[in-house]
Amino acid sequence: MWEQLWESHSGRIIGIVAGIGLGIVYLLSGFWDMLFVALLVFTCYNLGKNKDLNVGPIIPWQRIAVWLSDRWRWLK
């Protein structure tokens, strides 16, 4: 069971563990930083989910380059 879970959700598991690990550092610095911990866990979970789903890069550099070159011809 654990092997199937790891194979299908490894990115999400790593993301959550990384978010919690980084969040502990911020928890030690004060109570109000728990909001930042929630942001860290959420961000790391989504990054792991994107890895599991093979969404591609977070920032589509190639699409941005094509868009910029269409807008500004002198960039070519």
From TrEMBL:
InterPro entries: DUF2273. The chain crosses the membrane at residues 12-42. The keyword Membrane applies. Pfam families: DUF2273 (PF10031). Keywords: Membrane, Transmembrane, Transmembrane helix. This is DUF2273 domain-containing protein. It comes from Paenibacillus arenosi. The lineage of its organism: Bacteria, Bacillati, Bacillota, Bacilli, Bacillales.
